[in-house]
What does this fold into?
Amino acid sequence: MSLHSESMVENAPDIVTIENVSKTFTIRKDNSLKERVVTLGRRGRVHQESFQALKDVSFNIPAGTTIGLMGPNGSGKSTLLKVIGGIIDPSAGEVRRRGRLAALLELGAGFHPDLSGRDNVYLNAAILGLSRAETDAEFDSIVAFSEIGDFIDTQVKFYSSGMYVRLAFAVAVHTDPDLLLVDEVLAVGDEAFQRKCMDKIRQFQKEGRTIVLVSHSAAQVMEVCDQGVVLSHGEVMFIGSAAEATKVQREILEGRRNEVAEESAGLEHEAAPAAATITKIAVQGATGEHNDTVERGGEVTIEIHVTCDVALDHWNSSVSVDTPNGQQVFGTGTRRNATSHGPTSAGETILRYKLPELNLAGGQYFINAEVSDGDGAPLDALWQGAMFFVPMEFRQTGTVYTEAVISEG
Amino acid sequence: MISVTSNPAWFGGFWRSVRSIVAHRQLLGLLVRRDIKSRYKDSVLGLLWTLINPIVQLIVYWAVMGQILGAARGIEDFGIYIFAGLTIFGLFSEALSGATSSIVANSGLVKKVYVPREVFPLATLGSSMFTFAVQLVVLFGACIVLGSAPFTPALIWFLPSVVLIVIYVAALGMFMSALNVYLRDVQYLTQIFLMLSLWASPIVYGWTMVLDVFQRFHVPAWLLEVYTNNPVTLAVLGFHKAFWVAGPADQYPSGLGLRMFIACVAGLVLLWIGQRVFARLQGNFAQEL
It folds into this structure.
């Protein structure tokens, strides 16, 4: 399999080839001599546990592409990045690459706290493969980028964590790499600095460098990557465009979320001897294969199934819509609208919230619902009780949909 | 395209590793400077500490071994004799114990960045060479003050002694540092090994004393050869030749030069084996640390 971006030259040479790479970690439960002697031989093997972090992974990375490596926690993203970077040897298979590599697995990994910023710049640059003359030439630019200023001759241990990270990133991006491996390090620093990092990444893209980015943020992958690779349990689940990859990633996450929810469901629901219980949330108006796709600007009705144990004559409900990051995009309720439910007899009842013209941008959304008594004291809540997708749209990012009209003059 | 995977081949792989280390020589230099700069940072006496330790050792051995236990009888200029031996042994001891723990000490780097990992034990060897150089200056000073300046043709013996120690420290250091990642007992084992090698070489007593004892108890001759031909003994004897001007010729075994040459060749073979073992073990460093 090979990743070829449409925007790039079709026959760009591969900068990395990954062939049937597997990695098995052996986890020993004991490591003292006594325990090793006691569990010597065949019984010793019982005390070993192996864990397969990567299973037969193969793909090529053409030069000049930016690839987002996605997958849930523990899916082998970082291991694959380390294998590409030569930090871990694969158990089977081979990785070949060309050109200069800079791995940003951890910013400032080589910093020594007792040395000055200046010494650390030279040391870290040498670790990343820059010669002394090259570092001399880039030094002023590194200091300027990091915004460290006069502190460059202070010992690094007196730096604030922000200064530390800025200096480390400044060195890393000045190493002139052909291939840049980035492992979620961009999630540090204040907003202004993050923006600067993203600008630098875009500049790298323009210069035709190859970037492999590990990220949990679908938005970030959508924004910078042209290709996406999704891993799950060490296997490649999907290779293709970044937009489709984020969708696959979400489906995997959704599957996992349901498993966890089912496991803990019993515990949570027994603990609440509520007068009213939310049994189910349903989305009416969705279409698609799994009946979970909502068109942009479409009308949606959220149905909240509530079982009342006793008759209630005065009660409230509320509903909200979240992104997978937990960012609320919409919320309303009876109390906000100065109304209430009831009187209601014991038994099942269905509350309906109609949302006409739901102008949400592409992505996944979760629905939460809560019921409370007449004074607003909560009776029951169901978090992420239902989920729906809005189809991805390349033309825009964010959570709100609007048809932009671009003109000039 | 080059393979990212480390090359475990017994032949060929060695030269690839050597080339890769040579390509990273500037990094090696910076790591040595980092070690030296950070070692005595924020201490008032700073570099003086590199001298205080061997000087105290010298005084203790001179007083206890030389005067109280009487080892100084039959050895002229016993102070210089001890100091010469301690200086070269100090290089061996400091470099080997530093190299053994070097990979674990640099785990932050080993886990996150790819550099040829051999640079870490080699960098400790480099910074130990610096300490050694400072002590060498003091040794020269002491020799001159005590009235027997070592500016004789025999001073050339200093060179093969240092070469011998450097080869063996590089070989053993690589082997031990790789092993220490998997079994941390190795660093404690190294301390025991160093203590034994201090007493298994003629530093605080004379080589002829060993000869006498071996003859008195009819110890087989090959055991004396083993004792004499261990690289630390050879290096110490070489240092005595260079700096201990008062020493008589019968204090040394015959054919010291040839013995040193053979030990050097054996050391180079050991270095090759050590590097190959290191190359095989290093693939899993990042997950074991």
